[in-house]
Amino acid sequence: MKQHYVERDIGEILLSEEEIKARVAELGRQISRDYEGKEVVAVCILRGCFIFFSDLMRQISIPVAIEFMSVSSYGGGAQSSGSVKINYDMQNDIAGKHVLIVEDIIDSGNTLSHLTEMLRSRDPASIEICALLNKPDRRVVDVPVKYVGFDIPDEFVVGYGLDYNSLYRNYRNIGILKREVYEKE
Ligand code: IMP
Ligand code: MG
Predict the structure, then answer these.
(1) Quick one: which H or E segment has residue 183?
(2) Is ligand 1 within 6 A of the CB of residue 113?
(3) Which end of the chain, N or C, is less packed with Cβ atoms under 10 Å?
(4) DSSP string covering 97-158, please?
(5) Confidence (pTM)
């Protein structure tokens, strides 16, 4: 059987491992400064965020509680509307806590807008969003994102946790998939 390397399917590296690492360290420093003296809960939105989240948390120098959630937008596709479906909820109460939602990428903004609204009903002291990637051209709903790693063009990217059909999450850079990978399907 022919060897199949993840790299073979990547057309262009958009963000290298080194660039990501440097930016994640900056975000960690900024978050540590902004939340000093506050009771903060960082919420990892599974699954795309798992690598970014674990790197970011290790760049934060203040105490931080960690929670995990898995959500999906109802409807999916381009017209995802309604609310978010919670596949897995966090295990602790966030009332009175400063919540930082950590997400891999903000695209239309639907998922994060619904999630923020839903979490607000749990009475946290504050809610902010940290997204590694932001596609401003794709935004449908206006969501305030306090921390953004990188603004990127409207391209489908994979790696560093982000997937295509559940694959490529383990690719160490963030790259644009080759067209032939989609067209094969
Ligand atoms: P939205 O902001 O509600 O449109 O959806 C954001 C979600 O869409 C993210 O959490 C990703 O799961 C997925 N997504 C959007 N763009 C990309 C991409 O370029 N690569 C991988 N997943 C993406
Ligand atoms: Mg996701």
Answers:
(1) helix 179-183
(2) no
(3) N
(4) SEEEEEEEEESSSHHHHHHHHHHHTT--SEEEEEEEEE-GGG--S----SEEEEE--S--EE
(5) 0.93
**Segments in the chain below pLDDT 70:** 1-3, 74-82, 184-185
Is position 93 annotated as part of the catalytic site?
A: no
User: What is the reported pLDDT for 83?
Assistant: 74
- Find out whether the beta carbon of 157 lies less than 6 Å from any atom of ligand 1: yes
C-alpha dist (Å) from residue 56 to 66, 72, 100, 129, 184: 12, 23, 12, 13, 35
* C-alpha count within 13 angstroms, C-beta hemisphere, residue 171: 28
Q: Using an 8 Å Cβ cutoff, are 111 and 73 in contact?
A: yes
